[in-house]
Amino acid sequence: MEVSEDAALTTALRRGTIEYCVLALLDKRELYGVELVQQLSTGLGMTTSEGTMYPLLSRLRRNGRIATTWREAPAGPPRRYYTLTPDGEAALTHFRTEWVAFRSGVDRILGTEIR
Amino acid sequence: MEVSEDAALTTALRRGTIEYCVLALLDKRELYGVELVQQLSTGLGMTTSEGTMYPLLSRLRRNGRIATTWREAPAGPPRRYYTLTPDGEAALTHFRTEWVAFRSGVDRILGTEIR
DNA sequence: GGCGTTGCCTTGCAGTGCAAGGTACCTTGT
DNA sequence: ACAAGGTACCTTGCACTGCAAGGCAACGCC
């Protein structure tokens, strides 16, 4: 029960942020699907699954925020690598501002500001 | 388009936080529905509506995190005041920890840490 | 009594993260 | 050559939550 509640809690928190975390990761270098899932996990508790990632990537592609190219892998099946489009970069920049404002608001209400 | 996108963006961010922001406000003093909506708006851009608030309050009541008492108002219809239960306080405390961890993770990925 | 205000609540919808399941390609072992 | 396992991609259906829109009841003022 504790565990499932924690899961539900963090799931709710992720809403809307995963999308831009993916953009932020792609801003550093191109990555493929499975790699994105791993980076989010190790990057920090942003643990997620492929069932979340692929629909998300499809959406971002549809919205023109990322572009893809197939590449042969050294071993295993081919990979679809993703990169940011100019639209994606703009969206990311905009979100950073939005996030900082939101974060400050929540911190103020919760009393969790960094001093 | 800009506006609606911003709205969708912040809507997604609110997910899961509004609930605990309400608990945090009630941790300071008892409040009634409309008052909560106002405090969230002025507290900071956490603008929300009654259509969000009342279902949320019902949920919190069902989960035993808040308790209510009807009070006569100086003028106008009676008000339903909400207070935190011990369960509610515990949930709030737990969320603060969770939030700080989540916030740090997102900050690290986005590069929006405070220095 | 009628009208506006305040405060509470419900219905139906939209977006998104996730579990579960499925397909295809490649490598390795026998 | 074939089976088995691993890697990588994708889809379906569900659950949860915030919101717009709308409705109802009590009170005060004219």
What are the salient characteristics of this protein?
3-stranded antiparallel sheet; 3 strands; 5 helices; 63% helix; 115 residues; Arc Repressor Mutant, subunit A; homodimer; alpha+beta; DNA-binding
Low-confidence stretches of chain A: none
- Summed up, the domain count of chain A is 1
The spatial strand order of the largest sheet of chain A comes to: 1-3-2
Which two chains touch over the largest interface?
Answer: A-B, 36 and 36 residues
What general outline of chain A do the C-alpha atoms trace? globular
Number of helices of chain A: 5
Short précis:
Helix content of chain A is 63%, strand content 12%. With 115 residues, chain A is of the alpha+beta class.
Overview of the molecule:
The structure is a homodimer of 115-residue chains. With 115 residues, chain A is an alpha+beta fold. The first copy, chain A, has a single domain, classed as Arc Repressor Mutant, subunit A. Helix content of chain A is 63%, strand content 12%. Chain A contains five helices and three strands, in the order H-H-E-H-H-E-E-H. Chain A has helices at residues 2-14, 18-28, 33-43, 50-62, 86-110, and strands at 31-32, 66-71, 79-84. In chain A, helix 3 packs across helix 4 (50-62). The longest helix of chain A has 25 residues, at 86-110. At the A-B interface, helix 1, helix 2 and helix 5 of A face helix 1, helix 2 and helix 5 of B. Chain A binds a DNA duplex (30 and 30 nucleotides) through helix 1 and helix 4.
